[in-house]
Amino acid sequence: MVAVLREHWETTLRETCSLLRHNDWLMKRLGLRSAPSKSTLHSAMMRIPVWWLRRINTALIRGRRVPGRPAKLHVAIDSSGLHSTGQSAWYTLVLGRTSRREFRKVHLTVECRRSARFVYPWVLTRGQDADSPLFPTLLRGTAHLGPIGDVCADSAYASRANAQLTQDLGGTFIRP
Predict the structure, then answer these.
(1) Coil, strand, or helix at residue 39?
(2) What pLDDT score does 172 carry?
(3) Measuring CA to CA, which residue among 42, 126, 15, 36 is closest to residue 81?
(4) Whole-number Å distance between alpha carbons of 73 and 90
(5) What is the mean pLDDT of residues 60-89?
(6) Contact 92/100 with Cβ under 8 angstroms?
(7) How would residue 68 be classed by pLDDT, with cut points 50, 70 and 90?
(8) Contact yes or no for 120/110 (Cβ under 8 A)
(9) All residues at 6 or more sequence positions from 95 whose CB lies less than 8 Å from its CB, including other chains
(10) What secondary structure letter does DSSP report for 133?
(11) 103 vs 117: CA distance, rounded Å
(12) CATH number of 70-174: 1.10.760, 3.40.600, 3.30.420, 3.40.50?
């Protein structure tokens, strides 16, 4: 529950621990005798299963729907390397070090023009996998939530097929 609050508050691990430490009412409601340390919170968040994150994300998205005419979804699609221990992906790939470590990549579809930045479909892949083939999966997963508006994606996702799919779904493909 603390991990969900941290994401909701958009705080760092240290700030989350401090907020909990100074809020007796919340500590009581969460059933905590003392606030967790930064490292305890980090290790707990590392053990959260992917299926649970997807379930929470889906519930949040469903809660955002407003009755009436649906507004167009203006989204950005991008990926980032994930590494929790060991050398960073940057160190491994850019500096060309011989001790290559395995890392994962998360591909996200994020809403751009609303105050709440919802994360729509997301996919975890191996770090070496190409980005462009995942674009249709991410965009189609977003299209069932409402009409597509602008879709901003970097050159890793740029292809004629991806631009055509965006246009077929009623959106505009933008490559910054």
Answers:
(1) helix
(2) 93
(3) 126
(4) 32
(5) 69
(6) yes
(7) low
(8) yes
(9) none
(10) G
(11) 26
(12) 3.30.420
